[in-house]
Amino acid sequence: xxxxxxxxxxxxxxxxxxxxxxxxxxxxxxxxxxxxxxxxxxxxxxxxxxxxxxxxxxxxxxxxxxxxxxxxxxxxxxxxxxxxxxxxxxxxxxxxxxxxxxxxxxxxxxxxxxxxxxxxxxxxxxxxxxxxxxxxxxxxxxxxxxxxxxxxxxxxxxxxxxxxxxxxxxxxx
Length: 173
Known about the structure:
single chain; alpha+beta; 4 strands
């Protein structure tokens, strides 16, 4: 970690957290740029349109889940969309991370330096994701150290409906 400016990365992480949440429209555009055209072609309105948006979030949206195992180990699971978007649409991914860690005080306590470390390791995270058939990555750490190791999270089963609801909560959609 020589030359790693943790203070600057933590400052950037805090700046990201202070930014306003992206709109549901912007998130859907980032996830599936042609979603409006698809909805119009299908003639979707009202509840059918809302269901279509939820489906996009569930199937194509970045999903992040955090958990503590044993006493000191923590894991952060990233689906393929989160791994792919962690560098281009990182605000959405990091907001999903923040929501995922709110229920786990141990991880929430170290979220700023953890985000800074993850930002520094985007290339590694994406490299691991590219070697896995389903593109999923697991970040494993030992609490309270905000340093994680990226490894395959192949075959982790996501609750897509719950993940879409969490992402909808993040964007207020």
